[in-house]
């Protein structure tokens, strides 16, 4: 069995002078097994068993080697055992052959580039087990040698991205989990840096279609914590795609069938999780000086700007969601002054948008009382954080009321004529007699009626 073969190979490895001597012995053993099977004219089952035994020996040998020398004896095993197994019609042979070929490619970069198209073909067209193994090997080789090196023999590097995308959305849970695990490793290693890939993982993590795929969700739970808390740039990368992910997932949640509501958390909970992943206080820091690290909440400030800008353009429901999330962010003096100014201006603009739509119903973007109170609270908080310059004195509530009253007067009746105002002023200043007062009242009434 495989365990016995592994132990025998370990003994041979210990007794060998070096790697070349070890591989020479292995090649001789494999050759003898193949020759004996052919000479004895074994039936198909016995021949199948001999081929599988040779593949197990080849795999065990490759697992013990650290590198392959030029013109290594293992080249004979590759051409005479491994490649024929890949071309066989029996699934067991093909699966064992692809595992051996993967190990061979790990030891030889040039061979890895040569056989990368074959692994992609295995993912696209192989049976279930072959697809899984080919996909795992593809990710391992990309991790080891890089995307560009593995795309040398492909017609276009987009073939790899297309493969990753297709497998991430695969209907089979195991394929989907392997694909997500591979993509997560590539993102952590910096091999993949595009925002679309990160966005895809966020959507997969919260989407109801992955509710029952525990392996995928456990992998992503670990990934997001490690990814976001290891580098500030990773938190910024998450921030750049967070709002678009929120909007897409909010739409999915709105369209969700009532019987599947359990399979997805609410958009507010999704937003809170994204905020937690952006929390700079949870960063893994290498400073061992013992002093408390200086924490900047600049990433929260940038995220708040994007949320408020989105709130100005979205429906009432999404606007309320954005305002609620801004209210859960930590915004303090560590946020750059220009960011604070912009936050204050955006909050004011959002309030003005509410006032301009105060008579609207369905189209009112911030019509509910809770959102109005939250906006007022946010505006006051941002204003306190922004020092007031002489040139930037904010308009007080009294000034706003005066402007509103003046605009109403301009749009309504004309201002009463000056003589009337003087008459009243004179009356107040000279303390008129009751008769004089009655005469003035009669004059005012007569003038109003005539008008």
Automatic annotation (TrEMBL):
Residues 404-451 are annotated as: Disordered. GO terms for cellular component: condensed chromosome; condensin complex. The keyword Lipid metabolism does not apply. It is found in: Chromosome. Residues 53-330 form the Nuclear condensin complex subunit 3 C-terminal domain. Keywords: Cell cycle, Cell division, Chromosome, DNA condensation, Mitosis. GO terms for biological process: cell division; mitotic chromosome condensation. SUPFAM superfamilies: ARM repeat. Residues 404-413, 442-451 have a biased composition (Acidic residues). PANTHER family: CONDENSIN COMPLEX SUBUNIT 3, CONDENSIN COMPLEX SUBUNIT 3-RELATED. This is Nuclear condensing complex subunit, C-term domain-containing protein. It comes from Thamnocephalis sphaerospora.
């Amino acid at each position: 069995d495989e365990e016995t073969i592994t132990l025998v190979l370990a003994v041979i490895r210990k007794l060998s002078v070096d790697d070349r001597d070890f591989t020479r012995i292995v090649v001789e053993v494999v050759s003898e097994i193949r020759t004996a099977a052919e000479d004895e004219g074994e039936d198909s089952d016995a021949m199948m068993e001999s081929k599988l035994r040779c593949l197990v020996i080849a795999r065990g040998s490759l697992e013990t080697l650290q590198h392959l020398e030029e013109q290594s004896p293992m080249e004979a095993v590759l051409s005479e055992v491994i490649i024929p197994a890949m071309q066989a019609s029996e699934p067991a042979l093909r699966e064992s052959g692809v595992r051996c070929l993967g190990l061979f490619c790990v030891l030889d970069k040039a061979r890895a580039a040569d056989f990368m198209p074959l692994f992609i073909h295995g993912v696209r067209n192989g049976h279930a087990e072959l697809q899984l193994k080919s996909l795992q090997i593809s990710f391992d080789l990309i991790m080891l040698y890089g995307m560009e090196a593995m795309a040398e023999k492909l017609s276009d590097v987009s073939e790899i991205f297309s493969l990753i995308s297709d497998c991430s959305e695969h209907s089979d849970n195991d394929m989907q989990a392997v694909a997500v695990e591979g993509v997560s490793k590539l993102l952590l290693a910096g091999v993949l840096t595009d925002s679309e890939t990160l966005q895809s993982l966020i959507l997969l993590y919260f989407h109801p279609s992955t509710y029952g795929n525990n392996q995928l969700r456990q992998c992503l739970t670990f990934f997001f914590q490690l990814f976001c808390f290891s580098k500030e740039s990773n938190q910024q990368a998450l921030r750049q795609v967070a709002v678009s992910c929120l909007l897409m997932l909010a739409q999915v949640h709105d369209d969700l069938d009532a019987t599947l509501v359990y399979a997805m958390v609410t958009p507010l909970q999704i937003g809170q999780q994204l905020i937690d992943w952006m929390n700079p206080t949870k960063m893994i820091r290498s400073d061992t000086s013992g002093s408390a690290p200086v924490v900047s909440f600049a990433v929260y400030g940038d995220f708040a700007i994007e949320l408020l800008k989105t709130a100005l353009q979205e429906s009432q429901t999404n606007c309320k969601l954005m305002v609620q999330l801004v209210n859960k962010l930590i915004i303090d003096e560590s946020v750059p002054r220009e960011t604070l100014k912009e936050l204050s201006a955006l909050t004011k603009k959002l309030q003005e948008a509410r006032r301009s739509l105060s008579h609207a119903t369905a189209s009112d973007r911030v019509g509910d009382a809770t959102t109005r109170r939250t906006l007022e609270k946010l505006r006051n908080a941002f204003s306190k954080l922004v020092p007031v310059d002489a040139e930037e004195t904010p308009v007080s509530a009294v000034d706003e009321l005066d402007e509103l009253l003046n605009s109403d007067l301009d749009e309504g009746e004309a201002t009463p004529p000056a003589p009337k105002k003087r008459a009243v002023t004179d009356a107040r200043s000279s303390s008129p007699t009751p008769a004089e007062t009655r005469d003035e009242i009669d004059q005012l009434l007569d003038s109003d009626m005539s008008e």
